[in-house]
């Protein structure tokens, strides 16, 4: 039993470490996450079904650890997330008029037309800021989907929300990010 | 304003367009709805802009927190030894 885990460790630890490093940009954090992954694997080995691929299984554990890491990191900044979610829901609704079409201001910014936006350091800063001001649940949903590439049903389980609720969160978070970039990107340029 | 009301009556509202775009359901739409979706985008500059912005946001999110160097990373030897010791202590 233990020998099996050690065998997996020799086979997969570098791949897991590489992924954890890529997602956290920190050697220490990535090492800790790999360690926690294998310790969880030892404890959960009886839940592992031999028909599944051990590498996939280990990566699933690691992804949960990465999310936990960001969840802990985000804690403290959030005082009243539920109230914030309501506020942001109202805010995203307010971008549309009574017919559910975009409210126009005549000052729309078409930042998508700019070239090399993704390589632009200022744009990255704006993105960072805009993601950080989202309500915690929204940020976690967005991070799980786009940063970790998790499947919708996994994210729903973790956040304890229904599928339709999840899509609403992703949708609203995206609209919110767009508006935040609209504001910040024009004011910084 | 009037133009958008007519357009949304014929196709979808702008809000609905942003939802459909998000649900990645464009490919699961019926052909008539797919046509309505495309027609809306063709006629509505704001939604066209939104769809492109949405793609940029997704790419930018994918790059976030990640490092750009693609060197294959190896767990270093002291960390490796440490984790193996921890594993031996278990059970």
- Could you give the count of β-strands of chain A? 0
Gross morphology of chain A is elongated
Overall pLDDT level of chain A: 86
Which strand-content bin applies to the residues of chain B?
under 5%
How many H/I helical runs of chain B?
Answer: 5
| Average pLDDT taken over every residue of chain B | 84
Distance between the termini of chain B: 69 Å
Query: Which structural class do the helices and strands of chain B define?
Result: mainly alpha
Q: Which oligomeric form is depicted?
A: heterodimer
Computed Rg of chain B: 24 Å
- The third-level CATH topology of the largest domain in chain A is Arc Repressor Mutant, subunit A
What percent of the residues of chain A sit in helical stretches (DSSP H or I)? 55-70%
CATH superfamily of the largest domain in chain A: Winged helix-like DNA-binding domain superfamily/Winged helix DNA-binding domain
Largest sheet of chain B: none
Q: Which stretches of chain A are low in confidence, meaning pLDDT under 50 for 5 or more residues running? A: none
Could you describe the largest sheet of chain A, including whether it forms a barrel? none
Number of domains of chain A: 2
List keywords for this structure.
heterodimer; A: 189 residues; mainly alpha; Rna Polymerase Sigma Factor, Chain: A; Arc Repressor Mutant, subunit A; 2 domains; 70% helix; B: 91 residues; 5 helices; 0% strand; elongated
């Amino acid at each position: 039993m233990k020998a099996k885990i050690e065998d997996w460790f020799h086979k997969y630890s570098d791949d897991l470490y590489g992924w954890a490093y890529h997602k956290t940009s920190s050697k220490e954090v990535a090492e800790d996450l790999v360690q926690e992954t294998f310790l969880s694997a030892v404890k959960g080995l009886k839940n592992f079904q031999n028909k599944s691929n051990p590498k996939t299984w280990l990566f699933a554990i690691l992804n949960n650890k990465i999310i936990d890491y960001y969840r802990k990191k985000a804690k403290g900044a959030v005082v009243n997330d539920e109230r914030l979610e309501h506020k942001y829901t109202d805010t995203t609704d307010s971008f549309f008029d009574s017919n559910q079409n975009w409210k126009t201001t005549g000052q729309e910014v078409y930042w998508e037309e700019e070239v090399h936006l993704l390589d632009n350091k200022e744009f990255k800063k704006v993105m960072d800021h805009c993601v950080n001001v989202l309500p915690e649940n929204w940020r976690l949903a967005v991070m799980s989907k786009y940063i970790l590439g998790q499947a919708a049903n996994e994210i729903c389980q973790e956040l304890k929300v229904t599928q339709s609720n999840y899509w609403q969160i992703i949708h609203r978070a995206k609209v919110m990010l767009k508006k935040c970039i609209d504001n910040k990107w024009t004011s910084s340029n | 304003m009037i133009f958008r009301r007519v357009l949304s009556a014929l196709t979808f509202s702008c809000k609905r367009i942003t939802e459909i775009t998000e649900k990645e359901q464009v490919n699961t739409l019926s052909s008539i709805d797919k046509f309505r979706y495309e027609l809306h985008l063709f006629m509505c500059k704001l939604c066209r802009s939104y769809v492109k912005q949405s793609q940029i946001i997704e790419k930018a999110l994918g790059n976030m927190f990640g490092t750009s160097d693609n060197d294959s990373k190896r767990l270093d030897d002291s960390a490796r030894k440490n984790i193996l010791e921890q594993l031996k202590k278990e059970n």
